[in-house]
Amino acid sequence: MDTVVLARAFFGTSLGFHIIFATLGVGLPLMIVIAEIIHQVKGDNDYAIMAKRWTKAFAVLLGVAIPSGTIVGVQLSLLWPGFMEIVGKVISLPFQIEIFAFFLEALFMSIYVYAADRLPRYFRLISVFFVALGAVASAILISAVNTWMNTPDGFKIKPDGTIYDVNPWDAFFNPSFLSSSFHVAITAYMTGAFAVASVAAFKLLKKRPERERAYHLKGLFMSLAVAFLMSFVSSLSGHHSAQILHQHSPEKLAAAEGLFETQRYAPLAIGGYTDPKTEEVKYGIEIPWALSWLAAGKFDTEVKGLYEFPRETWPPFYVHTLFNLMVGVGVVLLGLAAFALFYWWFFAKKRAKSFPKWLLWSLVFSGPLSMLGIEFGWVFSCSGRQPWTIYRVQTTAEAATKNENLGMLFLLFLFLYALLSVLTVLILTAYFKRNPVSKDMERISG
Amino acid sequence: MSEEVLAILIMWTFIFVYSIFGSIDFGAGFWAMIYNNHRTMAGKIANRFLSPTWEITNTFLVLLVVAFVGFFPKGAYTLGTVMLVPVSLILFFLAIRSAFMVFSYSVQGYRRTMFIISGISGLLIPSLLIAVLPISQGGFIGVDGETQNLLLEKLFTSPTLYLYVLFGLTSELYLSSLFLADYARVSNKEEAYRLYRSNAILLGPLTLLSALFTLLFMAPESRWLIDNLVDQKIWFVLSLAAFFIAYGSLWWPKQNRPGIGRPRFTLLATVAQYGLASIGYGLAHLPYIVYPDLTIYEAFTATETFYSLMIMYIVGLAILTPGFYVFWRLFLKDKRYLQQE
Ligand code: HDD
Ligand code: HEM
Ligand code: HEM
């Protein structure tokens, strides 16, 4: 493999690994805050137990989120030195502010975890609130850098590469910043909620004492409500992101849809794959006019096709599949959450029936599926930008390191990520086996 | 003061603060391993400090990288290219250490193994970190066509590197012993205090000796730095004075009570000692970030970016200060936390 491809594979793997923990790191604190609030409003101790147990899981996940985040942060300079040179001049502001968000999160996380017993109740709530705020702020801020790569703004560049006329705030609030970072935050909340729903559904699969069933049902219901809301908002915001693509990165939208000819009344292609030989989408379902309508709200909107652009700047064709997968995940999960809530409301609640096994099993898979959606989304966003690292400013090859020692290091880090994944699962199961819910319940009531 | 100098001053302050907190952090991990289950509770005390703080120290490390990229993007380019291998190793060990520290808090069964892993990586990481210094002094970067790369073989066979590592490790252990001695004193664990104090008594002279040897055996390419260091000798004289005052204070009587040593004073005086020496070293190193190709003037960022970063630092610090204050109250001062068994 040549160095550029290796660097991309290496970096993509590091981010793909980090993002699992980072997303839960944004999503879980929201669930903890909600549980703490319900606890303080209703006085129901089950919610305090939930908050406590989720915090425990969160703390373990943070043990991987933080070092893996440190890795990607530093690897940006190691693998993409050419890119970071421009970043430093133009868009270092969000990185810098993000550090403050990290500090906020780290400070209050320690306070919430290690000083909870010495704090008044209201201060506990304040601490989790700041943890949640720090987490979502860091996600939004890091996304700002990524949005700037997709729609760079706030500087000018001479042909020899000299950067001038820098305006850091314009770079920060680039055209896709609001839509994309909102999408990132909402999908992280959605994923956190589905992750909790997965665990609760899994616990409900086995026979348990009534008291514990009630506890898990509360968790399931609460997480489904959040998940439903967030899935709904995330599809709206995803739609908005696509409209931003239409305006600012037309070749990405064209590749996502496998659209080659520029046209009005453009069709939406669902499923299938883009055949590089015939240059069309094969085995997909076409909905006439829908793409034009989605892109700007009118059927006669002109949507640009790939032929409009030089071939060497076409994104890879597989982004069509990635895009479909992400949207598919969103639609399926929105449907699932809606159905489960509906079922609960009309059958389970009124007739005191429990959820059927198949529904519980589908819910068990909702968390991992949502996480896959996040991964598809990022790989789509990043590889859909190819061959550019900074859209129309710097190519990936220019950004990449020229160092040739990547192979061994890549292997070393693959080993690290595998090790950490296995350990995280082992530690979490060991801890929750030793401290079952029943134990926490006794402690609180006794 | 020019903008470049202001930026490097801020950078240098961050590096200094991190090197103190990092030393204490990594050192505490090491002592927690050594004194695991020790009857004096010395290990417990190290851990009690480490559990809530390592995350913040780690964030400081990220701050260093980010601030460097923001202030000196060209420097990030050069160091990013050259340091790929050593920095990747640092990241690798850092990940192992952080993860195992958190895991050991959650499961009891494997505590020992986890302590050993996090303790040993606590020695490896600073050794690799300090390698930046000899590299920045010149002589270890080769140019091949258009790209620069690190002469790994030359670096790893050079005595300069190992002397720097020795200096780094002794300093790490000295500073962390002093800090933990103070922390043990505040926690009312007199036995643990004595243990850390005797470690410090042993380590103090070693740090001085290793510093001396590092200077004496500096690589020939670093001639320029030696010449500059001689010009800054006043700072080193002051630093040496601070060392003797600090070291001597290990034998001062305790205030109003029987007992020996004033650990808080010793710690602060030692920080001053390292601070003074850092000023001398920093001044001698200017204007180079990496000798001889990269100066702060060439590496500097866009002016507009510089000013918006400055504003953010001020706003950020103002927002975070109360948080740090609460944190300090809860974990470094609150008797209920410190004096639990
Ligand atoms: C969806 C949100 C999200 C995304 C897209 C990213 N991160 Fe992240 N990151 C987080 C959400 C997050 C987080 C949840 O907020 C973490 C986990 C623990 C923490 O303190 O913040 C975090 C931790 C974290 C840390 C450790 C901070 C510390 O020491 O406390 C660093 C350096 C980064 N990240 C850097 C990055 C970089 C360079 C990214 C992309 C290029 C990135 N993150 C993508
Ligand atoms: C349901 C409809 C959805 C639509 C129409 C949609 C649309 C989009 C679009 C157009 C982008 C690219 C933005 C860009 O490259 O600038 C994107 C990115 C992304 N999507 Fe979605 N998305 C949907 C659902 C989801 C779901 C369910 C998830 C995860 C659970 C998700 C996670 C992401 C992530 C993490 C990114 C990358 C960050 C970004 O660039 O915004 N998306 N999405
Ligand atoms: C956290 C979720 C993210 C994931 C999973 C992700 C994934 C990827 C993948 C798979 C690639 C390789 C693309 C390819 O080979 O086709 C890549 C490239 C890249 N990404 Fe992202 N990305 C994420 C977020 C970000 C963010 C927030 C930034 C900016 C700070 C970023 C910066 C880059 C850079 C610089 C490259 C290399 C150049 C390029 O291929 O364009 N990524 N990423």
Tell me what the structure shows.
The complex is a heterodimer of chains A (446) and B (341). Chain A is mostly helical. Helix content of chain A is 73%, strand content 5%. The model of chain A has no long low-confidence stretch (mean pLDDT 86). In chain B, helix 1 packs antiparallel against helix 5, helix 4 runs antiparallel to helix 5 and helix 8 packs antiparallel against helix 9. Chain B starts with a helix and ends with a helix. Chains A and B meet through helix 2, helix 3, helix 4, strand 2 and helix 14 of A and helix 2, helix 3, helix 4 and helix 14 of B. The structure holds CIS-heme D hydroxychlorin gamma-spirolactone and protoporphyrin IX containing FE (2 copies). CIS-heme D hydroxychlorin gamma-spirolactone sits at the interface of chains A and B. Chain A: Pfam families: Cyt_bd_oxida_I. Chain A: It is found in: Cell membrane. Chain A: It is a multi-pass membrane protein.
